[in-house]
Design goal:
heterodimer, A: about 1600 residues, 5-stranded antiparallel β-sheet, 34 strands, B: about 230 residues, mainly beta, 4-stranded antiparallel β-sheet, CC2D2AN-C2 (chain A), CEP76_C (chain A), Coiled-coil and C2 domain-containing protein 2A (chain A), Tectonic-like_complex_comp (chain A)
């Protein structure tokens, strides 16, 4: 620091003097008071005058400063003080030197002065008060000082200094100032003052001290002479300076002199002068590189330690320009200090310099890592970017969760590219002699070039010498070792890998010795290697020349040439003198080495020899001198013979290496030799060339034994090279170990012959297109074929994903990667940067190190501690998982509890129970329904559930795919038709009194979110309502109308005299709404009934799963007089309203949902018997006009309703999926085209050719039709064929009808086989119809399955005997296509001799095909086991069409002569149906259980009103009635009148005391829930009378296969008064 | 059988919804504004917001939906349509799955004065406590064909989503083609309670002194950039 000070200080001054003026001129003025302004103005004057003087002194100044600098190198601070000053300084130097002698021995030694650096000087802070006082002035000194200066300084100033001086701790120094000459002192002081006043350039305390206390040395005499002329001028200035100084103090007048306020003009120099000055001071290094000779010690030669196998750390990057500048500065700077440093270094230790052995600037290794250590997120997949932490409840998180890349989990996506460039043959039957020779020459040349390019010989030589040098270094160090206790630097540096010289004493000696041994061995080895390489090179050289000569001879002999090869031999220049020197040096070195080796081994050999000799002597002593076994006397080891050895070495060297003086040769193989034209060649050669031109080569690529590509055959050139240039990319799942390539020769006759096979290893995972290089791989023919050898040029690399930029390569194997990188970069085991690589190498040391490293994070390790419970076991997790899987029990769970304890266990128990039941059912099915008890019923349910789940799974997958219409609401583009209709409507006649119905646009389900879905039922009217037969009178005879009863009613004037007061009640989801009461048997309501639809928990999307039933019941409101006292009749009214259930219409919600609306006039489900009501229409004779159009013999009550949903919902369309089929493609295509053609011709007619079964496979409908034997019990029951048919129809109709939508919770239309249907005990119309049809076929009837549309049979899901009745007079129904959407339905047609019957399979009822009021509205097609016939008649109504399928014009068959049916059409149905035996005992038990349950429900419903007494006699009577009712359903012989009579007989006793109001219900056993709902809808429980008693009877009629007909008779009894 | 489990579910669901004790859920309270929109070519615009949470989320207070006034673009270069429609909602939840999302739909009259959809935007509510500004990019469904586009332009019935809340789920996104429209800026101030006590880490450390309840104050410095 001290040494740099002069320069810096000067800089500081130069910099600061210039701005000083400015600040004085305006800046300062603004800040200080008027006084200070005056002051500064006066100072300005002073400065101006001073500046003039300074200019004059400038030139002298420079020369002086230099001289001072040169002289006083030992005391730099002198220069420091005075050198930057102005002109006065020279004088000062002059003056003070007189007193120089005394300063040396004093306490203020140079060291002490040096220790106080000049901090305050140089104007570091302009505002800081300048260091003022000399500190070490004694009192005496002060006195002298005062006396000397009092004339010039104001008193105040002296005071100030005096104060400062008193503070100082200085020791007295006598007679300092006496020696100062007055003038010089005053000038120096003035100078000092001026500097002080400037406030910027004040001297430091050291300077100040020196100024006063220093004993200045005598300057040399010539210096004095040089400076002498300046003296007079200076003397002149002195006076004026003093005057200024005085006047200034007068001006200030005050006591204190504030130096801050004084300013000195800056030193202004012309630019030229400035530059000149700077050039003198500054050294500007040149950026031109220094030649290496300069950088090295004299005579040194640069050698690269890296080449010698010594670790060279990576140098930090430094721009070349800067580096050169630095080197230049170090070497050429005239700067004394730098120079000094360099010299010091150079002198102190010879071997040390700024530059290393390689001529490079020495530097520390680059501290920066070559690779950034942060994780590269480009390779990380998107989802891995978010830091996923597995949820943990109690367990703490791991301290530092490291995001892991789960590359292993993902299936690998690999893309291997193979670029086949060319095939070059080197041996082939088509080769001529010349070719062979040329190929040999080429081969030799290639080897030679490889050797030369590699420069193996030179490299090994260099290395050899390097090791030799290193050994010498160690040797010389070893010699010094006893005296020097420090390690040898050169040796250490040469062998960086070794220890760092920490050893002392014996340890160090051992190390040295070992090292020398190592070196010796490696020298020996290197020498051998070098000799071998050189010998090979020489041998190759000779071979090439020989081969070339042979080739030339061959060409001359045969008279033509067919290869263009030519060898050009060049002689390279060589310096024979240098070579000889090297040669000699090498020989000497080798000799020395051999000598050393010999010496070393000699000890050992000597010892061995002496031992052998002594042994030999012993033996001789024992055996005697002439014994045969004695053996020869051991020879003493040979002495080292330098001459002999040298001769050996020389001979060997001459054999191996090129001796000096021998020309140095280089070979170039050129393709310039002219090839003889084919025409000029002899015949065999011409043929050969032709054969070559015909030959083509191709390459087959095989991966894992499978051929992935076969390149196009490429012609072989005359040089036997085939340019392939074909690329191929293969996508792979796993990385192949190797790629097999087969080189094939394409013969003339399209025959391919495999020439050779070769294997290319899979490329390393980092090789991509950019880094891959085509490489030559040699191949040779294997096997018995003709010899063929050659080389294939190919490049293998991995593809790059264009989107992500990631390499589609297998994950790098760390060891393989290490090996690959090792090959690539030749890692240095000493380099710490390669530690990771070396760690992967099998190295015992590395293994030991590995123990310290932390174990890698397990890939599967999550945040849970081992002690913590497995998250999969937690109830909450299970709940969430099941919910996610869409398990019905959990699908709608919201607010899943956070803690396991709060998860309701009931949820799981229900689910568990279901699972258990399912598994039990699976096991039970194998027992084939052994006990037939409850388990049979349950197994049916389980079977249903299994099927349901299977289908639901498939459906859910299909529903995931949303369509655009589901997401986006968009108007359809109007086509010509709609535009036409729009214009047409504009032009049409306006008829305001005949408003047409506008179709409401239905909306997709999702749109209903947040809206309330309502069930809207518009009840228009009913007719033919049963009328009361038994009114309020006590009667004994119920059979005939009683005038007395009418009289009783008439008594009460309040009771209207009507036969019935009917109203409609809508019940849905246990909610009820009713219409007004109308009067009479033909009421008209015209009323809207609305009920909210409670959506399934999941919302509207789940609407299809709603299996509730809409009950629309017709009831009679009765007013019952409650007045006990007849006397009050005139004054009081006390009545109770009672209701009587008359009839019902049930519509499954699914029917409404699918069809959008249910509209029309329907026949209500009236019970076969209604106690107290008269259903007989004809008996009354007071019919509404509409009923007149009823066909004769038709009875029943009809209601006209319109049911819809508000707002209307869009029905999701049927899922149309092309699934696998059991039919052939051809057949399917035919079916499709046939169907399409028919639909195009007859839209609206239903036709099916193929249907899906439960497994999702499609099959031809004909396969479903097959005669099947009905249960034997049914066949045996009746002898009459007709009765049999009716019974069978009854049996089929008893199987519960469940729509596919409901059952499979989706829009699948699946057809189950009859066996499945029976097992599931559920199915829709098609299944019923198929079963019925199959039974009829068995019975020998001609039966067809009829597909068509009618009023949907879904209406009859629960009430069997409902028959839809189509009224001819109904305007809506009469007009085809008027808006009613007919449900698709299936009927069975039996074609008998007497009649054609259409059987409704769901009701079991038949009607004549000719009847005009069939509920089947249109017939689409007829199906039997052989064919499908589509209805091509003008009309579709069954009454209007001919059912003769042989009429070509009327029916279009699917299979014709041109398109015959498949030869064998195996039926999907089983040959015989399995019917399980129904356990009658169980049925009985079930009936009792059901009865109990219904009773319980009824009691529950009535709980809020009253208790419920049960009338057992009545129940018994009803129970006896039920079997008769069942029998009446399939026995036409039993008429309604008979039933009524029977009932009257049974209930006679009860009627005597009670008014009985009851209804028999018949429900196919679907579920008890449905039964309960139906009972609720009856509303019998709503009897509020206290005296009401109830009767309930359940009868179950068992049918085979666990089919049961359930009858429930419920009645309310009121005691007569 | 079927009915029985249905009843069970209803009961369980009702119990779960009503009876979650306060210790067993965490709370998320968000107050904020749908501040403004930048939408080129919109002369008048109003917006609707709706919040959509998962099955385990329940609104304690606040409105799930809201509709703003009609706004006109500001008379400067920014052309901002400012609504400052407040959004204030508090959720309680037992599961971060289904973290609530804000769906903004903007409507405005077209050339013929028909109210048409101008853009949908969706964003999760911020998960970390503090003040946040979120910019939602807006988009509208594209017409399926050029003819459709022309017709819808004429009739003023542009294609719109059948249900905007379907944006909150990923379903059906693949079938939609949408066009970018502009941006809506929303600001949120989020307070969470009990998240950390229940073991969820939303990127905020509980203050050292706060034991048990970790009511996290709004206005923290770590607001996510919008």
């Amino acid at each position: 620091m001290v040494q740099r000070q002069p320069e810096r200080r000067l800089q500081g001054e130069l910099r600061q003097t210039r701005p000083a003026m400015k600040s004085v001129s305006w800046n300062h003025r603004a800040a200080v008071t008027q006084k200070s302004i005056d002051e500064s103005e006066s100072m300005l004057d002073q400065i101006r005058s001073r500046r003039g003087r300074r200019r004059e002194a400038g030139s002298q100044d420079e020369s002086l400063s230099r001289s001072v600098q040169h002289d006083d190198t030992s005391e730099p601070d002198e220069t420091l003080t005075f050198r930057p000053s102005d002109s006065v300084r020279a004088d000062v130097t002059d003056d003070v030197t007189d007193a120089a002698g005394g300063g040396e021995g004093g306490p203020s030694s140079p060291a002490g002065r040096l220790g106080k650096p000049d901090r305050g000087g140089g104007g570091d802070s302009p505002r800081a008060p300048p260091p003022l006082a000399p500190r070490r002035l004694s009192a005496a000194g002060q006195e002298t000082f005062r006396s000397q200066l009092k004339k010039r300084l104001s008193l105040a100033e002296i005071k100030g200094h005096g104060r400062a001086a008193r503070r100082s701790r200085a020791q007295p120094r006598t007679s300092r100032f006496d020696t100062l000459r007055e003038g010089g002192t005053s000038r120096a002081y003035e100078d000092y003052m001026r500097a002080t006043a400037a406030g910027r350039t004040g001297p430091s305390s050291v300077q100040a001290y020196d100024f006063f206390c220093r004993i200045w040395e005598d300057p040399p005499s010539e210096r004095r002479a040089a400076t002498a002329p300046a003296t007079p001028r200076e003397a002149g200035e002195e006076a004026s300076g003093a005057a200024e100084s005085l006047s200034l103090s007068e001006l200030l007048g005050g006591e204190q002199l504030e130096p801050v306020t004084r300013h000195v003009a800056p030193m202004i120099l012309s630019r030229k002068a400035q530059l000149a000055r700077e050039a003198d001071i500054y050294f500007t290094p040149s950026p031109i590189p220094i030649p290496p000779e300069e950088r090295l010690p004299a005579g040194g030669q640069a050698r690269d330690p890296a080449e010698d196998g010594i670790y060279v750390p990576r140098r930090p990057h430094l721009a070349g320009r800067n580096l050169h500048k630095l080197e230049n500065r170090l070497l050429h700077s005239s700067d004394r200090h730098v120079r000094q440093l360099v010299d010091f270094r150079l002198q102190s230790e010879e071997t040390w310099s700024w530059f290393g052995e390689d001529g490079q600037l020495l530097c520390l290794p680059d501290p920066l890592l070559s690779r950034p250590r942060h994780r590269d997120y480009r390779d990380v997949s998107e989802d891995a970017l978010t830091d996923y932490l597995p949820a943990s409840m109690e367990a703490p998180r791991p301290a530092d969760p490291e995001p892991t890349v789960s590359a292993a989990d993902q299936p690998q996506q690999l893309q291997l590219h193979v670029h086949l460039v060319a095939v070059r043959l080197t041996e082939h039957p088509l080769f001529s002699k010349e070719h062979r020779a040329a190929a040999g020459l080429e081969q030799l040349h290639r080897e030679y070039t490889a050797l030369v390019d590699d420069d193996t010989v030179n490299r090994l030589t260099q290395r050899l010498w390097a090791v030799r040098r290193a050994r010498d270094g160690v040797l010389s160090a070893a010699l010094q070792l006893p005296s020097a206790d420090h390690g040898d630097h050169s040796g250490d540096r040469a062998d960086h890998s070794g220890d760092h010289g920490d050893h002392t004493g014996d340890g160090a000696e051992q190390v040295q010795r070992r090292r020398i041994d190592d070196y010796t061995t490696s020298i020996q080895r290197l020498r051998e290697q070098r000799d071998a390489a050189a010998a090979q090179q020489r041998r190759l050289c000779r071979s090439i020349l020989r081969r070339w000569r042979e080739l030339k001879v061959l060409r001359e002999d045969q008279g033509f040439s067919s290869t263009p090869l030519r060898l050009a031999v060049r002689e390279l220049p060589s310096d024979s003198g240098q070579e000889t020197e090297l040669w000699q040096r090498e020989l000497r070195a080798e000799l020395e080495e051999l000598r050393t080796e010999h010496d070393r081994s000699k000890q050992h050999l000597d010892a061995e020899y002496s031992q052998q000799l002594s042994e030999w002597r012993d033996r001789r002593r024992q055996l005697g001198p002439d014994s045969d076994q004695l053996g020869p006397r051991p020879q003493p080891p040979a002495e080292f013979d330098p001459q002999q050895v040298l001769a050996d070495i020389e001979a060997r060297a001459t054999g191996n290496r090129r001796p000096p003086g021998e020309p140095k040769l280089a070979f170039d193989l050129l393709d310039t030799h002219p090839i003889t034209a084919t025409a000029d060649c002899p015949k065999p050669e011409q043929q050969r060339r032709q054969a070559v031109s015909r030959c083509q080569l191709s390459v087959r690529t095989l991966i894992g034994g499978r051929e992935v590509s076969h390149t196009r055959p490429q012609p072989l050139s005359q040089q036997l090279v085939s340019e392939l240039h074909q690329q191929l990319a293969v996508r792979l799942r796993a990385a192949p170990e190797a790629l097999q390539l087969e080189v094939c020769e394409e013969g003339t006759r399209r025959s391919t012959r495999t020439l050779a096979k070769l294997r290319l290893p899979s490329p390393a995972s980092h090789v991509t297109e950019r880094t891959a290089l085509p490489e030559w791989t040699a191949f040779s023919a294997a096997g018995s074929g003709p010899a063929a050898r050659g080389r294939l040029q190919a490049a293998l690399y991995w593809g790059v994903d264009e989107e992500t930029g990631s390499v589609l390569a297998p994950p790098a194997d760390p060891t393989a990667e290490g090996a690959a990188a090792a090959e690539l970069a030749a890692p240095d085991p000493n380099d710490p940067a390669d530690a990771s690589m070396t760690a992967n190498m099998p190295d015992p040391c590395a293994a030991a190190e590995a123990g310290d490293r932390p174990a890698p994070l397990r890939p599967g390790c999550d945040g849970f501690l081992t002690g913590a419970p497995d998250p999969a076991d937690s109830a909450r997790c299970r709940l969430l998982r099941l919910r996610d899987a869409g398990v019905p029990e959990f699908r709608h769970v919201t607010m899943a509890p956070l803690r396991d304890q709060q998860v309701p266990q009931q949820l799981f128990t229900a689910y568990q129970k279901r699972l258990e039941a399912q598994s039990a059912a699976g096991a039970g099915a194998e027992e084939a329904g052994g006990d037939g008890g409850e388990s049979a019923r349950r197994s049916v349910l389980q079977y249903q559930l299994r099927i349901k789940e299977m289908v639901a799974r498939r459906l859910r997958a299909a529903q995931k795919h949303k369509r655009l219409e589901d997401m986006v609401r968009e108007d359809e583009v109007p086509d010509i038709g709609t535009i036409g209709s729009v214009f047409g409507s504009l032009l049409s006649v306006r008829r305001p009194l005949n408003p047409p119905r506008k179709q409401k646009q239905s909306r997709p389900l999702v749109d209903l979110q947040g809206q309330e879905l309502q069930l809207l039922c518009h009840v228009v009217r009913a007719f033919n309502v049963p009328v009361r037969r038994d009114t309020d009178a006590v009667r004994t005879d119920y059979s005939r109308p009683a005038p007395a009863a009418q009289a009783t009613v008439a008594q009460s004037s309040l009771l209207p005299k009507v036969s019935v007061r009917p109203f409609m009640e809508l019940t849905f989801q246990r909610q009820t709404v009713r219409s007004n009461v109308a009067q009479g048997p033909n009421p008209t309501w015209n009323q809207d009934l609305k009920l909210p639809v409670t959506l399934p928990p999941q919302g509207v999307a789940d609407l299809h799963s709603l299996d509730d039933v809409i009950h629309l019941s017709l009831q009679d409101e009765m007013l019952v007089d409650l007045l006990d006292d007849d006397r009050l009749q005139d004054t009081n009214v006390h009545q109770r309203i009672e209701r009587r259930w008359l009839a019902e219409l049930t519509v499954p919600f699914s029917t409404l949902y699918i069809n959008g609306r249910v509209e029309g006039t329907f026949r209500l489900n009236t019970p076969p018997l209604l106690i107290g009501y008269d259903c007989d229409v004809t008996a009354r004779g007071t019919l509404f006009h509409l009923t007149e159009s009823l066909p004769t013999g038709q009875t029943g009550t009809y209601v006209t309703v319109f049911i819809t949903l508000e707002p209307p919902v869009n029905v999701p369309p049927t899922v149309q999926e092309h699934l696998e089929s059991m039919e052939t493609e051809k057949l399917l295509a035919h079916c499709e085209s046939w169907t399409r053609a028919f639909r195009r011709d007859y839209p609206g007619r239903r036709v099916r050719c193929t249907v899906l079964d439960v497994t999702g496979r499609s099959a031809l409908v004909c396969r479903y039709i097959r005669p099947l034997r009905p249960p034997d019990a049914l066949l045996a029951a009746c002898s009459n064929e007709e009765d049999q048919a009716l019974l069978i129809a009854r049996f089929v109709s008893l199987i519960p009808n469940v729509s596919d939508v409901n059952f499979f919770s989706g829009m699948y239309d699946l057809w189950t086989t009859c066996q499945e249907f029976l097992d599931m005990q559920a199915g829709d119309e098609e299944e019923h119809a198929i079963l019925l049809c199959n039974f009829f076929l068995y019975l020998g009837k001609r039966a067809y399955l009829v597909l068509g549309s009618g009023i949907p049979e879904g209406l009859t899901a629960y009430v069997l005997r409902l028959v839809q009745y189509r009224l001819q007079s109904d305007p809506v129904l009469a007009r085809p296509g008027s808006g009613i959407r007919e449900g698709l339905t299936a009927y069975v047609l039996t074609d008998e001799a007497t009649n054609r019957w259409l059987w409704n399979p769901c009701t079991g009822q038949r009607s004549s095909a000719a009847e005009s009021y069939s509920s089947l509205l249109s017939v689409g097609c007829l199906i039997n086991a052989e064919n499908v016939w589509a209805n091509t008649q003008v009309y579709a109504q069954p009454s209007c069409i001919s059912f003769d399928v042989n009429l070509v014009g009327d029916w279009r068959p699917l299979f014709t002569a041109r398109q015959p049916a498949p030869a064998e059409m195996a039926s999907v149905q089983a040959e015989t149906l399995r019917y399980s035996v129904t356990d009658t005992v169980r049925v009985q038990a079930d009936a009792e259980r059901l009865e109990r349950r219904l009773r319980d429900h009824l009691q529950n419903w009535r709980q809020r009103t009253n208790w419920t007494p049960w009338n057992r006699p009545c129940s018994d009577a009803l129970r006896r009635m039920l079997p008769l009712l069942e029998r009446s359903t399939f026995t036409p012989a039993i008429s309604g009148a008979q039933l009524a009579d029977e009932q009257t007989r049974l209930l006679a006793n009860i009627h005597a005391t009670y008014k009985v109001c009851g209804v028999p219900l018949n429900v196919p056993q679907h579920s008890q829930e449905a039964m309960v709902e139906a009972l609720f809808a009856l509303g019998v429980h709503r009897n509020d009378s206290r005296e009401a008693e109830f009767a309930l009877a359940v009868h179950m009629e068992p049918y085979p296969s666990n089919i049961v007909a359930v009858w429930v008779y419920v009645a309310a009894l009121t005691r007569r008064r | 059988m079927e009915g029985s489990w249905k009843v069970f579910i209803m009961a369980a669901a009702a119990a779960a919804a009503g009876g979650v004790p306060s210790q067993q859920c965490f709370l998320l309270s968000v107050t904020g504004q749908v501040e403004s929109a930048r939408l080129a070519g919109a002369d008048q615009l109003y917006c609707r917001y709706q919040l959509h949470g998962g099955p385990d989320w329940d609104i304690v207070t606040g409105l799930e939906e809201g509709i703003s006034q009609v706004s006109r673009p500001s008379q400067d270069a920014r052309q901002l349509l400012v609504w400052n429609l407040p959004v204030e909602v508090s959720y309680k939840a037992t599961n971060p799955y289904g973290w609530p999302q804000l769906i903004v739909s903007c409507y405005g009259p077209d050339l013929f004065g028909n109210d048409v959809i101008r853009g949908y935007g969706v964003s999760h509510l911020p998960t970390a406590a503090g003040a946040h500004r979120v910019t939602l990019p807006l988009f509208v469904p594209e017409s399926t064909s050029q003819l459709q586009k022309l017709v819808s332009w004429f009739t003023g019935r542009r294609p719109e989503l059948a249900d905007a809340s379907s944006l909150a789920t990923g379903d059906g996104r693949d079938v939609m083609r949408v066009r970018s429209q502009g941006y809506v800026t929303c600001s949120f101030q989020v307070v969470t309670k009990d998240l950390q006590r229940l073991g969820y880490d939303n990127g905020r450390r509980a203050p050292a002194g706060a034991a048990g309840g970790d009511l996290q104050p709004a206005g923290g410095g770590d607001g996510r950039p919008g």
